[in-house]
Design goal:
Blueprint (H helix, E strand, L loop, with lengths): L2 H33 L2 H46 L11 H57 L5 H31 L8 E4 H10 L2 H6 L3 E5 L5 E4 L1 H17 L6 E8 L3 E8 L31 H11 L3 E7 L3 E10 L6
Helix pairs in contact: 1-2, 2-3, 3-4, 4-8, 5-7, 7-8
Length: 348
């Protein structure tokens, strides 16, 4: 039995013994005061108290030993059931034997369930791998043939435009398939995060580098307010993808000449990254839905997209112990707040 449990039982035994002794002494003293013959009843009373105390001590010792044996037996039952070892209590008709049988059945069911989940995860992993492999070659061929067609001379204006559309739609299809694959891997736990203490400014720069060209083409300025000394516990690869998704939305839903401002603040538990834009904004009643899978706001109906980016961002951050929030005013822009675990706050 563990020392903490033993100490708890010892305190219980002492309380019981003191209570019983107090009752006996009180009763004896009361009887002596009533009879008024203290000398005559003194030694029989002392003997009675002694024998009663001895019986209590012996009874408590037996009960303590039995409790210790029961706890040790339960510990052996659980350990043996986990390891698949032979039964401890056998097949006797006792409460312990019944409990052992139930524990073995429960652990067997748990192991069976875990194996089933693992098998299903492996099947999904193989399916995702097959989808990725089977679609990669056809899409690559479509892109290649569209490039060859675009390089052909003598194509009429409409034909040239159609070829460009083929290339554009092929790129969108490739992006959609890759996003769906990432989403499936995240949901099934196939993708493993590797968070570590990493510079936040480096991760932000990595995300901006993927969207800077599109922002420049629309004349959208991107400013950063971040102390280079700030570090957070996160996976820089996947977190930069989160920031890219948020920045991609900011560029997409902002008018030419708009602004994007990124600010970072370090707190005791979290590091907060705010990405504020001057885009079309989000209705207040839709803020709780924007992170749902395949959800698209009413204002974005005329824009390209399928509603996966924000869902992926939330899942990636959640897998690292972080989270994301959104605040917006229609027509005035949106601010997405990314919260990463501060150094020293990594979840074990």
């Amino acid at each position: 039995m563990r020392s903490a449990d033993a100490g708890h039982f010892n305190r219980s035994y002492i309380i019981f013994a003191v209570t019983a002794l107090s009752l006996v002494l009180g009763y004896t003293g009361w009887m002596m005061s009533i009879t008024g013959q203290a000398e005559r009843y003194l030694w029989p009373s002392v003997l009675f108290v002694f024998l009663f105390a001895l019986i209590c001590v012996l009874w408590l010792g037996v009960m303590r030993r039995r409790m210790a044996n029961i706890v040790d037996t339960l510990d052996q039952i659980v350990e043996g059931a986990i390891r698949g070892q032979a039964r401890v209590t056998g097949y006797s008709e006792t409460n312990l034997s019944s409990l052992e049988n139930k524990l073995i059945r429960y652990i067997d069911l748990s192991f069976h369930h875990e194996r089933k989940i693992e098998a299903e995860k492996n099947k999904i992993k193989e399916l995702i791998s097959d989808i990725s492999h089977q679609t990669k070659t056809p899409l690559s061929n479509i892109v290649l043939y569209s490039q060859l067609l675009a390089e052909q001379s003598g194509l009429e204006g409409d034909t040239q435009q159609w070829v460009k559309q083929i290339r554009t739609q092929a790129d969108k299809l490739d992006w959609l398939i890759q996003s769906l694959i990432k989403m499936s891997r995240l949901e099934t736990g196939i993708i493993a995060m590797h968070p570590d203490s990493t510079s936040v400014i480096d991760t932000i720069t990595r995300g901006i580098s993927q969207i800077y060209r599109q922002a420049e083409q629309k004349g959208i300025s991107i400013t950063i307010d971040c102390d280079t000394a700030i570090h957070a516990h996160h996976d820089p690869k996947w977190t930069s993808e989160v920031l890219f998704n948020l920045l991609d939305n900011a560029v997409k839903y902002s008018e030419p000449g708009g602004r994007i401002h990124i600010s970072v603040a370090a707190y005791e538990l979290f590091v907060r990254i705010d990405i504020a834009d001057t885009g079309i904004g989000i209705e207040e009643d839709e803020l709780h839905s924007v992170f749902k899978r395949f959800y698209r706001c009413k204002r974005t109906a005329s824009f390209e997209g399928v509603g996966i980016g924000l869902y992926l961002a939330r899942e990636i951050l959640s897998a690292q112990g972080g989270y994301i929030k959104a605040a917006s005013k229609p027509g005035q822009g949106t601010t997405f707040s990314v919260f990463l675990l501060a150094d020293g706050q990594a979840k074990v």
